[in-house]
Design goal:
alpha/beta, binds 2-acetamido-2-deoxy-beta-D-glucopyranose
């Protein structure tokens, strides 16, 4: 407990200590800002799956005695739609990301909604070191002790877990001939794409939604992420962009005045006085996650939000009744992200609760997942700043006494010149990206070959395609999903005809 908490606290604190330049250690994948009450709302939903545990091996890659230790890996399964083993009906597997698998399953409506048509078995596998899938006796405090235990938390181990579990499950179901399709969003999408490339004998294809597999050092610019956020707001309204851009200096100036912190506290309805860097980070978070989840329908992924939340924020900022009061404008914008339920009496800006158990990302972001996102050009909506690998390395040294391996991911999975590398290697991957998503700058945005396909939605945000459908869905979104379904159908029918030609 102590370590987990200290880490979160430090994580929050480091972001702030580098003045206004908000150098996040981890990329802004789902934050720690989801309120616990949202979880219980989800939990009371109808049952979507059964929960099962599988005895998984600690270390797939060497044979020393400790590597034979095991842990209980959680997976969720729904066989209500499955055509069955005798029909070789397909198996849809979600390759879990950096958090509680139930949260990802409950946000991946695409699999539930397409399963009846495909007669698919649904399986959602939790990533090791997250949720209930804790090595070292299932105790998070022990699993997160230090590098000696956390050392087993890596993407390659996770992929090997998925391969082992899927193979075993198919054997248990006598479904060895059923084709497996893997699905994932965000880091889970990266895992899905890599799984298809590394384990083509276990999965016939991958839908990798908003998976920034190119967001690594010297492949994608560190300015890309914030450029996209800036563009999202600027394309809504120039004045909105200007107000936000100008506000950072005004906040700093006010904080430096006698009684300034009190002015800020009142302007932003903050519960209790906190360092100004907390306020900046709090606003930064609201803008970043609103851009990420700028969905065309109301949503409740990170926080409850109205449809087109960036537009709503800019509407609050451009609201004539706020006159020239920058803080009133910014408060109005923050209120969209933090108080769309209308139930907040004041804002707890130093809240570091982690209801979805995402804190393990700090370790991943300090070892292999060096994803440069913190740079800001002069045009950025945030204060101009550079991203330096050395800053990340020194935080990681401090937090975990560890040195990152910034080139490992691109060595292991590729990334540089990916179009050339995959053009004549690999097949059956869909890369979906919505261009309003700040992560899309590190996504695959061009078709690589006939079967490694990029689907790009100008108006889309972070893995919007995987979300539950709703009556208000736009035509382009329905169209994206239709394309994805058709491509997956092709993979499956090709698999069945190959199986006739090459029976096992
Ligand atoms: C599978 O999901 C559907 C909702 O899509 C639900 O109605 C059904 O009860 C679930 N089945 C199981 C076995 O959990
Ligand atoms: C991790 O903690 C354990 C128990 O306190 C200790 O024995 C071990 O040496 C530590 N490992 C590292 C790499 O610090
Ligand atoms: C397969 O069955 C064995 C024996 O019941 C069980 O121990 C194992 O956990 C099962 N595998 C999976 C993936 O559920
Ligand atoms: C990235 O590129 C810079 C400049 O081209 C080079 O100095 C640096 O060594 C490269 N870094 C890595 C990790 O390859
Ligand atoms: C902003 O409003 C205040 C109070 O209404 C006024 O005194 C000030 O001149 C205005 N400033 C600008 C730049 O319009
Ligand atoms: C949250 O919204 C409600 C309803 O609009 C409002 O009454 C309340 O003051 C807001 N809370 C904060 C902290 O601004
Ligand atoms: C990739 O090819 C498909 C047709 O196979 C097309 O629908 C899609 O628009 C192409 N993607 C891009 C980014 O050009």
């Amino acid at each position: 407990m102590a370590i987990g908490f200290a880490f979160l606290w430090f994580f929050f604190f480091t972001l702030l200590s580098c003045s206004v330049s908000i150098a996040k250690i981890g990329p802004a994948f789902p934050s720690s800002l989801i309120r616990p009450e949202q979880l219980s709302q989800l939990a009371t939903k109808n049952q979507l799956y059964e929960t099962v545990y599988f005895t998984q091996i600690l270390d797939h890659f060497n044979f020393n005695p400790q590597s034979y230790h095991t842990f209980q890996q959680r997976y969720l399964i729904n066989d209500s739609f499955w055509g069955g083993a005798h029909k070789n009906a397909p198996i849809f597997v979600y390759t879990g990301n950096e958090g509680d698998i139930e949260w990802f399953a409950q946000n991946t409506g695409f699999m539930f909604e397409t399963a009846p048509d495909f007669k698919a078995l649904l399986v959602f596998i939790e990533h090791r070191f997250y949720g209930k899938s804790m090595p070292f006796g299932g105790n998070k405090d022990i699993a997160y002790t230090n590098a000696s235990t956390l050392g087993y938390l890596s993407s390659t181990q996770a992929l090997a877990d998925y391969a082992t579990l899927i193979t075993d499950l198919k054997r248990n179901l006598t479904a060895t001939e059923s084709p497996v399709i893997v699905f994932g969003g965000s880091y889970g999408g990266m895992l899905a794409a890599w799984f298809r490339l590394k384990y083509p004998h276990i999965t016939i294809g991958a839908l990798a939604s908003s998976s920034p597999i190119l967001h690594f050092l010297n492949v994608t610019s560190p300015y890309s992420f914030n450029n996209i956020i800036s563009h999202d707001f600027r394309s809504e309204s120039e004045s909105c962009y200007k107000v936000i851009k100008g506000s950072w200096q005004q906040i700093e100036d006010t904080a430096n005045q006698q009684g300034g912190l009190d002015v800020l506290r009142k302007s932003f309805r903050i519960c209790k006085n906190a360092d100004v860097s907390f306020l900046e980070s709090w606003l930064h978070t609201a803008l970043t996650y609103t851009a990420m989840t700028d969905y065309p329908t109301p949503s409740n992924f990170l926080n409850p939000l109205p449809a087109y939340p960036v537009k709503q924020m800019c509407k609050a900022i451009d609201d004539p009744s706020t006159g020239n009061d920058t803080f009133a404008k910014l408060y109005g914008a923050a209120n969209i992200y933090y108080n769309s339920s209308g139930s907040a009496t004041c804002f707890q800006i130093d809240d570091n609760s982690d209801p979805h158990g995402l804190s393990g990302w700090g370790w991943q972001a300090c070892t292999e997942m060096i994803m440069p996102t913190g740079g800001n050009t002069e045009e950025s909506i945030f204060p101009a700043s550079e991203w330096h690998y050395e800053d990340r390395a020194s935080s990681c040294k401090y937090m975990f006494d560890i040195e990152p391996r910034p080139n490992w991911i691109t060595t292991e999975f590729g990334g540089k010149d990916i179009y050339r590398a995959l053009k004549r290697f690999g097949s059956n991957i869909i890369f979906f990206n919505g261009l309003r998503d700040p992560w899309s700058g590190g996504g695959v945005l061009k078709n690589i070959s006939k079967s490694i396909v990029a689907i790009v939605a100008n108006e889309g945000a972070h893995h919007v395609d995987l979300r539950f459908s709703s009556k208000e869905d736009t035509e382009w979104l329905k169209d994206v999903r239709k394309q994805e379904v058709n491509i997956i159908k092709t993979w499956i029918s090709e698999y069945y005809s190959d199986s006739e030609y090459f029976p096992s």
